[in-house]
Amino acid sequence: MLAYAELTAFLKLAEDAALLAPTLNDRAALGDVAATEYGHFRVLRDKLSSLGVDPEEAMDPFVDAIDAWHAQTRPKDWHEALVKAYVGTGIAGDFYREAARHAEESIRRLVDDVLTDEGRSEFAVERVRAAIEADPRLSGRLALWARRMVGEALSQGQRLAAARPDLATMLVGEEGEDLAEIGRLFARLTEEHGRRMAAVGLSASG
Amino acid sequence: MLAYAELTAFLKLAEDAALLAPTLNDRAALGDVAATEYGHFRVLRDKLSSLGVDPEEAMDPFVDAIDAWHAQTRPKDWHEALVKAYVGTGIAGDFYREAARHAEESIRRLVDDVLTDEGRSEFAVERVRAAIEADPRLSGRLALWARRMVGEALSQGQRLAAARPDLATMLVGEEGEDLAEIGRLFARLTEEHGRRMAAVGLSASG
What we know:
The structure is a homodimer of 206-residue chains.
Chain A: H1 2-20, H2 24-50, H3 55-59, H4 63-72, H5 78-101, H6 105-115, H7 120-134, H8 138-163, H9 165-172, H10 179-199
Helix pairs in contact in A: 1-2, 1-4, 1-5, 2-6, 4-8, 5-6, 5-7, 5-8, 5-9, 5-10, 8-9, 8-10
């Protein structure tokens, strides 16, 4: 799931960079985030292959949910693209870290390595903060946009967890069937999201 | 010029991978080529910055020609995308190598390093060959497609060389103003293209 998420993040960020960046330096900066995601994908694909798993087969069950999320969260302008790069990859990262908590040590370390932020959030945070300072009216619209992205992420996550009990077990351990436990996990994800929103100068409550 | 070409190649290849790859493994393989181009861009951008040049300003004069080439060579299907990845990056590489021949040693080495193929042409060659074996009618269409890409590349190159005598001088040395010399350079590019076409199982004459 993380492999397909990284491959898709790479392609979507590249698309946003090509279509929405106002300057070549901005295009290069978001391109940098995209290329980093590809590097993460490569690590995960190689790990799958080394386990004797075909990456395509392994990714296939998660294609619909991740594609649906991107279809629902297509940024309309450069600021939405920046907020998506920061908030979207942030909440996705928290989700995969939670999923890896119950995995074996070597997988947990791999996931942590792949999700290392490498300073890319700084790029988006600085630009969004500056844009809001220059035009405070942006703040409400971008806060709503971030809320919607998180809502769509939780909705896709819930759909997957309902359809795949094995994934639910992975997320919350032996209490996998306990929907309340899934609810608490989602609450933790929402809290972390609130911290990121504050960092970028947006109110999580919209 | 090479920096903008690499940045754009990265974004266009990512787009082709997202839109045209028939399987996830194919998408990942073309994504790999795209991410490699980004790595090349990063090297060139850092070199420009280290020379005290703003990358955006340095790339700006070449945006129109390179964008026009991509607008004229948008692949319609996966096989066209593969041929573009192989033939398009091939002829572009020859062009930049020629341009670097008259540059100082350190720049020449940098360009050679950036243009190292890293085995990515093998991926496209194998798949195109296999596709033509399976359906020999593909051969004529793809040969025409490759011809058109090269024609567009030479046409954009000629436009640039006419508009920028400094670039022409860089390409053919002191005889920069000699259009015949430019013609001979383009003949060399076309010969190299013929060799690539043969490698992929296509006839350069269409």
